[in-house]
Design goal:
By secondary structure, the protein is α+β, with helices and mostly antiparallel strands. Helix content is 24%, strand content 38%. Helix 1 packs antiparallel against helix 2. It is elongated, with a radius of gyration of 27 Å.
Amino acid sequence: MRFLFVLILLAGTGIGFIYPWAMTNFSGREIGTWRVYEQGRFKPLTVSLSGRDAPVRVLVDLTARAERIVSQQRTVLTLTAASNGRTVLASTLQFNHVDNPRQVSPQLPGKIFRDEGGVIATVSPGPYVFTVGPGDAEDIPMRAVDLILRSGAGEADRRARPVGFSLMAIGLIGFLLSSRSGGGRPDNPNSQPPPPRWGRGAK
């Protein structure tokens, strides 16, 4: 039974964490990566998109001299995307949920934190202007900001996380209960005192 509950726990982890993460970071194909902040200056980015690129997922990589981002629910960066003077995407980025940032390089200090800016579901052919700017979070040691666009990006099923968390809970509770009920060691016959050789109970 314990092996079965371990399998349920692993399945829940895959559905609740690995599947949404893979859909966000690897589904579709990468259109390109552009540096939008460097040496203390933000700059807008213009990218030509076509209808066959839809849906387009927008990701933002923040390189900072920090082990983690502590924004205290404040906005680290703002992001907008506009086409023909019309805003098609607007979001705020906090980066405080990134548990495993990437190392820049063994020789350079700092980590790369990724957050999702959103998805442009419908794309009209033409230029799109992406503007990244600072939020109201203070003391974020930013070194660089990169904008990543992925075309044909899939969307993770919203039911995946609740189902995954439920399976993880079932697997963990079942494993603990089965370990407690079936984990007792058999009695060691040598641990019992020898029977008396005379008097009552003597054999």
